[in-house]
């Protein structure tokens, strides 16, 4: 989960840190237009995270990985739309979708870590996955994304985000059946 979190954070911060620049340089939006896009990404996270958490409980019976994988697949699709459109409305819609979906896996990985350990170890578990995300993911998103965009243009940066999304899916898949509460209700 901690390794998956690295790749989720690369996508999260890759979009968060670089979307205002992309919107200004490529979409030719004003500073206020880029700020609107940035805000859409952030505000979409609130209902998205709530919905993703609810779905992981109700539909997947506490299994966090399936919902995280669905979110990352949705993020890949939104990144593809975002990177290939010049339509401002589609840019903003894809930012909203990315924002609504990327914060779900961030939250689900932390919750999954909490689900796996005794209560007295919950802070350590959450800290461990968070540390991997911030140190590995955020630093990589800042430094590597900038390098990749400089060297391979924006298409290289978007390819990096898609590759990181795929890697997060692979690592989340290893925890597919972790904490399935439907089995607990059958035993009771």
Number of domains: 1
Q: What is the residue-mean pLDDT, rounded to a whole number?
A: 88
Q: CATH topology, what is it called?
A: Growth Hormone, Chain: A
Radius of gyration equals: 17 Å
Our count of helices gives 6
Structural class: mainly alpha
Contiguous runs where pLDDT drops below 50 for at least 5 residues: none
- What share of the residues does DSSP label as strand, in percent? under 5%
Note the overall shape.
globular
Which CATH class applies here? Mainly Alpha
Note the gap between the termini: 29 Å
CATH superfamily: MFS general substrate transporter like domains
Relative helix content: over 70%
Strand segment tally: 0
CATH architectural group = Up-down Bundle
**Main sheet record:** none
Give the SSE order as H and E letters: HHHHHH
GO molecular function, one term: glucose 6-phosphate:phosphate antiporter activity
Main location: membrane
Organism: Clostridium fermenticellae
Membrane topology: Multi-pass membrane protein
Topology:
Elements: H1 2-25, H2 31-58, H3 65-84, H4 88-116, H5 122-173, H6 181-187
Helix pairs in contact: 1-2, 1-4, 1-5, 2-3, 2-4, 3-4, 3-5, 4-5
